[in-house]
């Protein structure tokens, strides 16, 4: 289990805006549930966005109006007998705050307001913010088109807010047997894995700039250069320092070890080992041994905690765990020790 307060710190690294002064009070609060944390962040973030101004976009509308605007729809006006009411049906663009991004914010805020695990103070703050969303519609949270959202200079301040909305809607929303929806108490493993990966990358970018941390692509070391149909290889985190390279693959599972029921034994996940070994061997095409790999698991409650270093085919492959339920200063120290031992 991950301490809820540490989710805030992980978000703060993943989305730098949370380091701003306006969010500092959130770090002093104790949260029992992720939904309460997300409500606190959204309440503050939406209030900040209201001060900057809500995003607006042009939306096409067709309706009968007294003063013609845009393009007059003659056939629709005849069918609807709008002329008898001294109106014309017109097709026109309205510049409105009822934008898709604002719809997602309102939908998520209303889910959190209805959630019993959200504290009264954070519900009150969200309700206050929603007064400015009276002209904004809600949407079906299960049909939000996340991949269609595009950020640019004028709406970049929405990025962190919508990523919080994504965690709530995709990582916590459950449908009950009667068709109603409720929020789970914790974020699911798939979304936490993405946050975990982003957190580790941004942590090393911030505290070890000399390592040039990146999510680097890895080329296949093939003879003849023919790579058609080969899948792309992209590391979670790649660190480089003075001729050495460390490839880190983050893993967030309910169980760190896999169990062989036939032999009653536990081993590391085989596909994880195959993957990191493939990454290392293809990046170290010169066979120098200067490229190493690390599987960095989020620690679970299991008795066996992997902490191993192997030399396989001349390359170092390490398996470590990161205790995300510790004080954040301890998490920071764990990350420092791991990378300094393997790369410095």
UniProtKB/TrEMBL annotation:
Question: Which Pfam families would you find in this protein's record?
Answer: McrBC (PF10117)
**UniProt record, GO biological process:** DNA restriction-modification system
Q: What is this protein called?
A: 5-methylcytosine-specific restriction enzyme subunit McrC
Instruction: Tell me which species this is from.
Output: Sporotomaculum syntrophicum
